[in-house]
Each structure stands twice: as C-alpha cells, then as structure tokens.
Amino acid sequence: MRHPVVMGNWKLNGSKEMVSNLLKGLDAELKGVEGVDVAVAPPAMYLDLAEQLIGKGESKIILGAQNVDVNASGAFTGDISPEMLKDFGASHIIIGHSERREYHSESDEFVAKKFAFLKEHGLTPVLCIGESEAQNEAGETVAVCARQIDAVINTQGVEALDGAIIAYEPIWAIGTGKAATADDAQRIHAAIRAHIAEKSEEVAKKVVIQYGGSVKPENAEAYFAQPDIDGALVGGAALNAESFAAIAKAAAKAKK
Ligand code: 13P
User: Fold this and answer.
1) What number of CA atoms fall less than 13 Å from residue 207's CA on the CB side?
2) Residue of 67, 174, 210 best suited for mutating to test ligand 1, as the one with most atoms within 8 Å of CB
3) Is the distance from CB of 4 to CB of 255 less than 8 angstroms?
4) Mind telling me the catalytic residues?
5) Annotated binding site
6) Which residues sit opposite 37 in a β-bridge?
7) Residues comprising the binding site for substrate?
8) Residue of the nearest CA to atom 7 in ligand 1?
9) Cα-to-centroid distance, 74 and ligand 1 (Å)
10) Domain boundaries, the chain
11) Which DSSP helix (H) or strand (E) runs through 115?
12) Which of 14, 56, 93, 251 is 20 to 30 A (C-alpha) from 46?
C-alpha cells in the first residue's frame, strides 16, 4: 500500500507574517492526524523561518522547496543548490512544474538533470508532468506524460523513480478552478503507472503519483477514493491552513 503525500506548493506567495501564521495554523490543524505525509514548499526565501517554525511545532510537517539548480556551487547567479536546501531541512523538492517549463523554458532534459542531481544528494524529487489544454484536446495526454517521465527513465533507469514522487498536473486545471474529474484523473494516473510498469512492475507499484490542479477540500475526497491517486500537489488551497489541512485529512481517511 502506498503512503499518501499531500504537498502544498505556495508558489510566489508569502511574507514572514503569512509563513508564520500558516505554519502555526497547520500545526494546530494537523495535530493527531496520521496516515498521510504532509509537506509544504514555501518560497526559498522563507525556508529558514519555516524550518524554525516546523521544529517548534508538534505535527510532523515535511519541508520542501519549489526548485533546485543543476550546479552545486559557483558562478550561477540566483540559483540554489541541493546542499543549500538540505542545510535548511528541505527534503521534498518540486521540479519541472509547468510554470517553470513555460516561463523559464525548462526542457524535459533539463528537468531530468535536476531529478538526477536531487537523487545524488539524497533528496526526494517531486516531478511535475502534465499536458496543455491543446494537447489534451488532441488526445495527447498520455504521450506527453510518458515523454516527460521517459526523460528520467532513459537517462537514469526506471529505478531512479524509486522513492521519488510524480505529480500529474494538467496545465489547464492549474489555478483555473477547472479541475479534472476524479475518473479522468484516475484514468491518466493508471496509464502513467502502466507506462512505468512496462519497465518495472515493482517500481510502478511503489511510486507515489499525486494529482494537482484546482484541488480543494470539496473535491479532494473524490480524488483520493481512486486507486491510483496517492495524494495531491495543492496550489491555491494550500495557502489557507484550514483548507489545506482538510485536504490532508481527506487523504488520510481515504487511504486508511
Ligand atoms: P492550484 O491548486 O492553485 O490549481 O495549483 C496547482 C499547482 O500548480 C500545484 O503545483
């Protein structure tokens, strides 16, 4: 049985006050909640504060980040290395988010490099994949997801996915309120798992595949009731302690 993982991607949102309120609120909401891994990815600027607050809290919130570079140190202005993330206790690192693929022209190959670099440093990659609206309408969803995963499999072997997390986020569902139906998401998750199973049934069985894209407390339960949906990567609803905790609790309940 796969252990569900619910992660909040805070994107470019936050202030010291907001980080403090949100993490304190989450700590209170998540007290006593078992059976789900809950992670948050604040902007890198706030990792220090988040690490301190999580350390003081009672619930076991996992610290994550939204990006990493492919270099360890040196003349790479503005970038952040895996060791720096580790220094602040961040373990679950989002890579290949569609916003980075689009606004920073990150290719499948570049994202795969980040994947390898995180693994090399003992960090958990949260590999985002997903199709655009046009690709969806053209019936290319599974092919796009397979290509994005193959960039990792073909360079590092299928075993590289062992212990990693895949987040299926259809681009048209991100921040739009137009979420995929639970049935549609399940169909794609099953296809992604089947694609991995072509290389290794063992790895496919174990890999956590999250759904992301307009996940809210109201629709979370329906996703988690699906056999191949192992958690969620949450944007907007993760900025509120009550709604994010409600999603985490729904995962814990459904995957008992
Ligand atoms: P929303 O939950 O705001 O749609 O964002 C999803 C997302 O992009 C998480 O990485």
Assistant:
1) 29
2) 174
3) yes
4) 97, 169
5) 9-11, 175, 214, 235-236
6) 5
7) 9-11, 175, 214, 235-236
8) 235
9) 32
10) 5-254
11) helix 108-120
12) 251
3 state DSSP class of 151: helix
Residue pair 232/211 in contact (Cβ under 8 Å)? The answer is yes
Cα separation of 24 and 30, whole Å?
Answer: 10
Please report, as a single letter, which amino acid is at residue 147: R
pLDDT < 50: residue spans in the chain: none
* Residue-wise DSSP of 46-81: GHHHHHHHHHHSSS-PEEEES---S-SSSS-TT---
Total number of residues shown for the chain: 256
Could you please state the CATH topology (level 3) that the domain comprising 5-254 is classified under.
TIM Barrel (3.20.20)
Which atom of ligand 1 is nearest to 238's Cα?
2
Q: Report the b/e string of 105-135 with b at 16+ CB within 10 A.
A: ebebebbbbbbebbbeeebbbbbbbbbbeeb
pLDDT value of residue 71? 98
Atom in ligand 1 nearest the alpha carbon of residue 236: 3
The ligand 1 atom at the shortest distance from the C-alpha of residue 94 is: 10
In whole angstroms, what is the distance from residue 169 CA to residue 224 CA? 15
Distance CA 62, CA 57 (A): 11
Please give all residues whose beta carbon lies within 6 A of any atom in ligand 1, as ranges. Answer: 9, 97, 169, 174-175, 212-215, 233-237
CA distance 59 to 47: 17
Closest by alpha carbon to 92, among 113, 51, 123, 69?
A: 123
Query: What amino acid occupies position 4?
Result: P
Name which of 62, 59, 50 is nearest 22 in CA terms. 50
Return the pLDDT at 113: 98
Residue 65 Cα to ligand 1 midpoint, Å, equals 14
What are 155's two structure tokens?
């360079």
